[in-house]
Amino acid sequence: MDPQQLSKAKAKYIRSLHALKYRQKYNKYIAEGHKICKEIIISNPSQIEYIVATDGWISENQNILSHIDDNLLFATHSELKQVSTLSTPSEVLLVAEKPAIIDKVLLKREPFLLYLDGIRNPGNMGAILRIADWYGMAQVICSQDCVDIYNPKVIQSSMGSFLRVGAVKESLISFKEDGYIILGAAMEGKTIHSLTTLPSKIVLTIGNEGSGISDETRALVDQWVCIDGTRKIGAESLNAAVATGILIDQITTKYK
Known about the structure:
By secondary structure, the protein is of the alpha/beta class. The protein folds into two domains: 4-97, CATH 3.30.1330.30; 104-255, SPOUT methyltransferase, trefoil knot domain (Alpha/beta knot), CATH 3.40.1280. The protein is 35% helix and 21% strand. α7 packs parallel to α8 and α7 (122-134) runs parallel beside α11.
């Protein structure tokens, strides 16, 4: 194994992937940190375009790099800082190809789906992917104005869950036309605890962090649901990811 030095041209290319338009153009994304990079190297080696790492990291991880050759690049800490999206860069960064888009036919075989309507905060999106992963959901549906799930901050906050939970940008109308009942999360809804039974096919819709569910999506909602709080503490609302976790837990419990 003889890693090449990170060139200026490759560094420029990697930096370009910080921007959405270039992630879309090249169909690539950046992942950083030992845990996430190690998981990708072990589980999806064929999707890796480049691994950029310090000499120390390469030496310490020979056991997972035995099948890596031409796409392994050596970089100093200073060079890694120039291509990293983090304020404190890790010793390893990789560029990988985005996985294939989810087959919508397979998606519609699931009885319980999650629709994210205008989620813009990368930290929230990453946390929601982790929650979906915890509950065994293989995919989420996103509106066109959601943050890119391959945004570096989403990838970091998902802690590797983006590898197991896919996201497809698809209109909610097609799911309604296919027989799904649309549940909308809103303060004015019935408490999720009060629903003794659920339809056989549902889509839970979570709205934007500040403005909630859009008017276009609201027109498609069949039933509004909320979380039953005590109202004694004074909190006006819950973080989108926290609310998503509570609602998914309640719904999956009712489906058992």
